[in-house]
Amino acid sequence: MAYETVIGLEVHVELKTAAKVFCGCDARFGAEANTRTCPGCLGFPGSLPVLNKQAVNFTIMAGLALHCRIAPFSRFHRKQYFYPDLPGAYQISQYDLPLCEKGRLEIVTPEGKRTIGINRIHLEEEAGRTYHSGSGPEGYSLLDHNRSGLGLIEIVSEPDLRSPAEARTYLEKLQTILQYIEVSDCKMEEGSFRCDANISLRPVGGKDFGRRVELKNLNSFKAIQAALEYEEGRQSALLDAGTPLEREESRAWDETRGSTVFMRPKEKAGDYRYFPDPDLVPVVVDDGWVEKVRQSLPELPEIKRERYIKEYGLPLYDADVLSSSRPTAEFFEAVVKAYGGDVKVVSNWVMVELARLLNMEKMELPAAKITPESLAGLLKMVDEGTISGKIAKTVFTEMFYSGKKPRQIVEEKGLVQISDKDLITAVVQKVIAGNPDSVADYRGGKTKALGFLVGQVMKETRGRANPAMANTLLREELDK
Amino acid sequence: MELCTMCLGELRKALDNKEASSKEITAAFLKRIRGFNPELNALVTVTEEEALAAAGEADTRLARGNGVTPLTGIPVAVADNICTQGVRTTCSSRMLEDFIPPYDATIVSRLKQAGAVLIGKTNLDEFAAGTSTEYSRFGPARNPWDVNRTPGGAGGAAAAVAAGLAPLAVGSDTGGSLRRAAAFCGITGIKPAYGRVSRYGLAALGSSLEQAGPLARRVDDAAALYRVIAGPDPYDTTCLPTPVEDLDRLEEGIDGLKIGIPREYFTGAELLPEMKNLLLSTVKSLEEMGVRTVEVSLPSTRYALAAHILLAAAEGGSNLARYDGVRYGYRSPETKDIFSLYTKTRQEGFGDEVKRRIITGTLVLSTECYNDYYLRAQKIRTLVIKDFSKAFSGCDLILAPVNSGLPPKVGEKRSNPLDMYLEEYFTVAANLTGIPALSVPGGLVDGLPAGVQLMGPAGAERTLLRVARRLETVAGELLIPARKK
Fold first, then answer.
1. Are A409 and A429 members of one domain?
2. Residues of A with CB below 8 A from B336's CB?
3. Do residue B89 and residue A271 have CB atoms under 8 angstroms apart?
4. Per-residue pLDDT tens for A180-227?
5. What confidence score (pLDDT) does residue B79 get?
6. Which of B84, B326, B342 to mutate to test the interface with A (most CBs of A within 10 A)?
7. What is the DSSP letter of A103?
8. I need a surface site. Which of B28, B206, B345, B404 has the fewest CB within 10 A?
9. Is B235 on the interface with A (CB under 8 A)?
10. Who among A48, A87, A143 is closest to B235 (CB)?
11. What's A260's DSSP letter?
């Protein structure tokens, strides 16, 4: 029996605001434990929440980037439960009136473009971190409240995803967009991007949804895809055996075992006793406010990609890679502007040489010492014939590590290309004189020997001879 | 001169004319506290050292003559559910018995800025959940008029002012505690309009219902204290961002004003006949001053109390959830895991009434009950708001009882918690609607004080105070019989 996989994703994203969402504490990552706290985010008697406007703006930005309707009227609810890392015993969140609704995200799959619906985006606060040590009577737990009260947006997709691979693509795309508009670092390893997945199966062509399983403890994109694939298989086997899921449940992904493990039934989720938070007033967002936020958004990746294809004539793959990260796109566009030459040349250098070095050094673009102007300068030097393409790669590597300008490097290392006909002719003659066997081979019909001889010319000139010219002049001399 | 019998105006004059220093005045009140507080149990903490230090600073300010406000050098007592930095704030609960806040409530920082002298923290029902201070961890406060009787919910603060332990006090009012205590002790108490006084630092119980307000023996004194603590506060989002209304020229005449008498508060309500008579004679006095009275109807009155009970429990239960022994406050000594830490700490840390509120509140907000209880209570709240709006379209303010009868004897009402809730029958509407309300002494019934409640629409504070000033001339200043003074 063929089954259709139905997947929905809930993503929590920590906002990169300067302060926490309901108090003025510094929101940046990585400080000594419990040094970024105040009576508000510690739930002291008499403390009150005050809404951070930047957090609302960031939420609206995310909503606009995902084509959501921004609610003109929304409010905060208390979600109540007891856990030591939740200082007030309630999380300020949103319930029936979220800030953003009914959006979409387009993803590119091997089968083509697909539109995934976004049900809602709402703003809420983070809880603290708990560190467990030992167990039994000797065990203890430590609480760090630096994270308590951090702004969080929850992005809930419609159950429109149809495969684990699609789910991964969706997450990668979502991460790109949110990083693009700079509302979050979106780093799974730092906890600023977290995902829970819901998956169910139904017969192909079926209209009703099957019983779903919620997957938790998914710590990387790889794990998410693997967990969904595993669960797909598990549920499919159960259906084939005639023992479909009896109830909705939550399962945890076990990385070491490579399987999902039962956690608890979904009904036992607990009654959160939601009610509107009486300490906060509703949020009223008018058209003017939305428009102002819209103006502040950068050109989004999908628009950029289309523009690269149209304006620069780049193929889809190249356009996709270059537009996929904002630093890359901005760097690329700056080089194009400064260089003024063939865009495909630029695209090649950015996608191949630059990417290679960044990867090797495990660096991100903003940290690289190369500026768009210096790369443009390098390309111009190649066009001018000052250096060969091959030498340029050496210069580029030096630029990457030292931050020096190309002209400076070329001068310091004496790498200026030799295009002096007489000079090269002299070297050619020397090489011919010094390699009688190869010359004989060539004259005997082995055209491959030419390559060897050209190589010798390059060796003699320490790579600086203009290779095309060396080739031509060699042939001339040999054919004499 | 008997400093402790002086009202604010007289103390101010004495200070300004250098007839007494703040240190002398403060010392006088501290002495009186030492003498009478053991019996009255009005103050939970007396900040003797801090008060004398603050008084010294006030004297310096007065000598230099800069930054002098009406409150500079004047002792003020603050209810123990309002956070005072470095000074124990217990909320009259075992849960916070040794809790020392690292910050001041906005009310307190404003008092300090004005140069007032914090003299101590007053007794109240545990977390303000109650009507008599009988639910206090430290035992009930006593009514200075009859120590066998309770002084009402904000009882410690009211008793302190009435007995001359402090000239001014600040207490909180979630369902009437402040007004009722003022009435039981023969003084004036104001529940400001919701959003007029910052709640930052006031340990929350009924977040959408409560306000802290002034207690004093004279209306002018209460108004002066109100001016200092009221006003916009960026730390409290529910605090109105508009400046406090003008409260000048309170001595202006009141003839021509129209006062509404709510039918439902006088017929069918369980008013002691003597209380009813006192109120009716108060109405007559007002009419003689040129005020016109008109009957108004508030049909939602029969549901208001029930709605208040449910909403106060829902919000209160939620606000009390943070007291769990994890970050501060009481923690049960022998626990083996997080579950027992939570359950034992809260079992041992909270008193019965607080537990009742939490359980009720949890039920009210549960999925099964939300629509029938919480949502419906909020709808009734809207009806109460509409009733008052309609009434105010035909009158300038409303006169009503504060309490149905005499201050209950200690222990009298504890057998049935519901009886205690019923005592707030006349006062909950002002909390539900957020309108300003006050209690001013109306006279004596059986030798014990009785108060008159005035309620007005938003922005009517000046009108309320003008009428209250006139009324206090009718009752005269109620002074506690000689043996207590």
1. no
2. 137
3. no
4. 999 999 999 889 999 999 999 999 988 889 899 999 989 999 999 999
5. 98
6. B326
7. E
8. B404
9. yes
10. A48
11. E
What is the tens place of the pLDDT at every residue in B24-60?
999 999 999 999 999 999 999 999 999 999 999 999 9
Superfamily of domain B3-255+437-475: Amidase signature (AS) domain (3.90.1300.10)
- Do A80 and B328 count as a contact with CB atoms less than 8 A apart? no
Shortest Cα–Cα distance, A79 to chain B (Å): 10
Distance CA B47, CA A109 (A): 72
Q: What is the pLDDT of residues A95-153, one digit of tens each?
A: 999 999 999 999 988 888 899 999 999 999 999 999 999 887 788 899 999 999 999 99
- Chain B hits for A89, CB-CB cut-off 8 Å, are 321-322, 324
Phi-psi region of B127 (alpha: psi -120 to 50; beta: other; left: phi over 0): left
Average pLDDT of chain A to the nearest whole number: 91
Residue type, A462: R
Within-domain flag for A17 = yes
Kindly list the averaged pLDDT for each block of 10 residues, start to end, along chain B of length 485: 88 95 97 96 97 97 92 98 98 97 98 98 96 93 95 94 96 97 97 98 98 97 97 97 89 93 88 93 95 96 96 98 96 91 97 96 96 98 98 97 94 80 95 98 94 96 96 82 52
Cα separation, B71 vs A243, whole angstroms = 78
Q: Could you tell me if A181 and A68 lie in one domain?
A: yes
What's the pLDDT score for residue B485?
A: 47
Comparing CA positions, the residue from B180, B241, B140, B202 lying closest to residue B450 is B180
Surface-to-core class of residue B306, CB atoms within 10 Å of its CB (0-12 exposed, 13-18 middle, 19+ buried): middle
Chain A: residue nearest B374 by CA?
A275
A51, A274, A279 ranked by CB distance to B207: nearest: A279
Which of A34, A47, A48 would you mutate first to test chain B, the one with the most B CBs within 10 A?
A48
Contact A44 B102 (CB under 8 A): yes
Residue A268: its pLDDT value, please?
61
Enumerate the residues of chain A whose CB falls inside 8 A of the CB of residue B315.
278
> Cβ–Cβ of B235/A141 closer than 8 Å?
no
Domain that holds residue A462: 421-478
Residues A22 and A42 in one domain: yes
Measured distance CA(B205)–CA(B318) in Å, rounded: 8
Let me know whether A436 and A396 are in one domain: no
Rounded distance between C-alpha atoms, residue A252 and residue A227, angstroms: 9
- Do the chains contact at A78 and B204, CB–CB below 8 Å? no
Which residues of B, range 336-395, sit inside 8 Å of A by Cβ?
336, 338, 342, 362, 365-367, 370, 374
The predicted structure's pLDDT at residue A101: 98
Question: CB contact, 8 Å: A44 with chain B?
Answer: yes
Start-to-end C-alpha separation, chain B: 14
Nearest to B432 by CA among B130, B214, B173: B173
Domain count, chain A: 3
Q: From the list A51, A88, A273, which residue is nearest B322 (CB)?
A: A88
Q: Last residue of a domain, which of A413, A436, A452?
A: A413
Residues B258-289 as b or e (16 or more Cβ within 10 Å = b): ebbbbebbeeebebbeebbebbeebbebbeeb
Q: How far is A218 from chain B (nearest CA, A)?
A: 26
- Residue B314: the pLDDT is 98
Q: What is the ipTM of this complex?
A: 0.95
